[in-house]
Amino acid sequence: MQRMTIHDTEITINGWQLWLPLENILDEFVDMIDQGEALAVNEDHSGDQKRTQAWIKLSYTAKDHQDPLQAFQQLVDIIHTRMPSQPQNNEQGLFDIVTDGNPDSLPPNSFTHRFLAQCSRLAFTNITPSLSIAQHQPFDLVSEQVEANKLYPLLLFSSTSFAYEESRRAP
User: Fold this and answer.
1) DSSP state, 162?
2) Cβ pair 108, 133 in contact under 8 A
3) Does 31 fall in a domain?
4) pLDDT digit string (tens) for 93-125?
5) Which structural domain, as residue segments, surrounds residue 16?
């Protein structure tokens, strides 16, 4: 168990904390390296990641990126197959819809930018009757306020219903 300060002693020996075998902890570190979460770099590496000696920890891996892409693709495919008419050629890219045609609002190497740019094209904007792809960002900043490589909130789905609104059940 790792204690960051001597003041953590009471917390770590209170009987509620689990002690793990060292080999389990080391296995987790090896998994982080295998999955590309932690990378060994030389002195010439320059990046925004926090650096601990020769190691950097990435904010997301290729797997972290591919899993939501596949899930979103499945959602899009299911909606397309259930649409009463087949999608027309007026499909829009998710990136253009969500950023409202302002691609500079997202840092190019961010997870969000890469996710939106690689999502399949859509022939719809509504996911359910009260849930749609957000077309206007409530947190949108003026382009002069946008700082390079800084992450800002992004709304992907918006609802026309209030979160606390009661709904009647269908018979």
Assistant:
1) -
2) no
3) yes
4) 778 777 777 777 777 777 888 888 888 778 888
5) 6-57
